[in-house]
Design a protein that fits this description.
2 copies of one chain form a homodimer. Chain A is 40% helix and 17% strand. The first copy, chain A, contains 8 helices and 8 strands. Chain A has helices at 8-20, 30-36, 41-53, 69-91, 100-107, 113-122, 169-178, 212-216, and strands at 57-59, 65-67, 148-149, 158-164, 185-192, 197-202, 206-210, 218-221. In chain A, the strands form 2 sheets. In chain A, strands 3-8-4-5-6-7 form a 6-stranded antiparallel sheet. A two-stranded antiparallel sheet of chain A has the order 1-2. In chain A, helix 1 (8-20) packs across helix 4 and helix 2 packs across helix 3. The radius of gyration of chain A is 19 Å and the shape is globular. At the A-B interface, helix 5 and helix 6 of A face helix 5 and helix 6 of B. Chain A binds a DNA duplex (30 and 30 nucleotides) through residues 7, 9, 29-31, 39-47, 49-50, 61-64.
Chain lengths: 222, 222
DNA sequence: ATTGTTTTTTAGACAAGCCTAAACTTTATT
DNA sequence: AATAAAGTTTAGGCTTGTCTAAAAAACAAT
């Protein structure tokens, strides 16, 4: 219901600022932005300036960029498209969760609201994408969750795999092959202090040793 | 399998040249092209020159443009995408045949072959789109048909509605409401010489009077 | 506090795609 | 055949988004 007033490029910047600024100080820096969009700091700085002039971004020179209300609403709308397409691709066309991101990057720019709404309806107004990320509704509202990183659990605690922090195809494929997919029950059997690695039990059956890095990128609902 | 080496704009021109040059002399003229793409003759002339320099179009100044072999292959690949998406939208998301064109105009530019092939497979390698137009296969080959315009049939002849010449939403909606959709049996009950209009019988049940213009835009398989 | 390093911004240039205005060809008319 | 009309191309300019190089600001370190 919002932005076909912004070019693909502008939309990509808005999305990148949204994702990057989800850190401690809520700010996206020029270099990060350039790196995320595979361009130069000069170009990123330029675009931040333009988006700031268009009233989507608040930007203090040399101090990074944040989205304002309008920018955030726009970002959420783009993310809604991306995540609905991702879910559609897995649910209908049976793609794996590690395959869908690049296609959704293109499909998110298809502007027809008629189409997007039909997909939303077809999927029965879903609230999470194949990676457990929330899908903003048509008003830009997202379902709040309080997932815990698996890596912070103690021995004998357990929960359901509900999302991932890291979205690379490699990591997702690793999880897939290890049988750690969304909805699995997972229990901490042992926790090794010296390297923060874990022995876990998946669905009460398969036991597995996972590194701290893997554990910190798996989100659990207790 | 071919062209993500061409911009959206270039692809739109290639497609337009393909469609426009399906006439007597097999040529697309600057003005037609400009009109088809809602731009000026100057811009169209420019682009024709560029496409000619890139080796897709043969262009004799002041004499119009045609696609060469390479251009035609490219056009067929773009049309394949367009028509597969159109069929997908009607078959899966239950859009009407008069709704799908604008969405497919956007979706045809999504470049993933992985996605296109999956859709092709999902639809079981279809050979016709919702309007009866042939879908080129992955090699660019199209199923040849010899449909007849309803408007050229004589009294008591009959056949199956298999396509349309005119693709406007208005015309398609008219056909829909009149019950003249793809696959219908249609029989000429009467033919009026003075205005070339017809009385027809649809599926042996509903009789209807249609104008010459309507009749000439309906394609029949005898 | 001054110096050196890192990061960000500005300046100037370029390609794509579009426009308007002007020039040029072809076609139609007398 | 000469001229008018229609259609096409070229010229020059604008915007978007990109780049490299240079300037400016911020941060780090002695």
């Amino acid at each position: 219901m919002l932005p076909n007033e912004y070019s693909h490029t502008e939309q990509n910047y808005i999305k990148a600022i949204y994702h990057l600024s989800r850190n401690e100080d809520g700010t996206a820096y020029t270099q990060q932005l350039a790196s995320a969009l595979s361009t130069t700091p000069a170009s990123a700085s330029d675009m931040v300036k333009k988006l700031s002039e268009k009233g989507l971004v608040s930007h203090i020179p040399y101090r990074g960029a944040k989205l304002n209300k309008r920018g955030e609403k726009t970002a959420l709308y783009i993310i809604r498209r991306h995540r609905l397409w991702e879910l559609f691709l897995t649910e209908v066309l049976k793609f794996r969760w590690d395959e869908v991101h690049p296609m959704a990057e293109e499909l998110e720019h298809v502007s027809s609201d008629l189409l997007l709404d039909r997909i939303d309806k077809y999927l029965n107004y879903p609230r999470f994408d194949p990676h457990g990320d929330p899908i903003p509704d048509a008003q830009g509202k997202i379902t709040e969750t309080n997932f815990t990183r698996l890596g912070t659990l103690d021995k004998n605690q357990s929960g359901t795999i509900s999302g991932v922090e890291e979205h690379s195809a490699e990591f997702l494929q690793y999880l897939q092959e290890a049988g750690m997919v969304l909805g699995c029950q997972i229990k901490i059997v042992n926790r090794y202090d010296f390297d923060k690695s874990f022995d876990v039990l998946i669905n009460g059956k398969k036991s597995l040793h996972i590194s701290s890095q893997v554990a910190m990128n798996i989100l659990i609902k207790k």
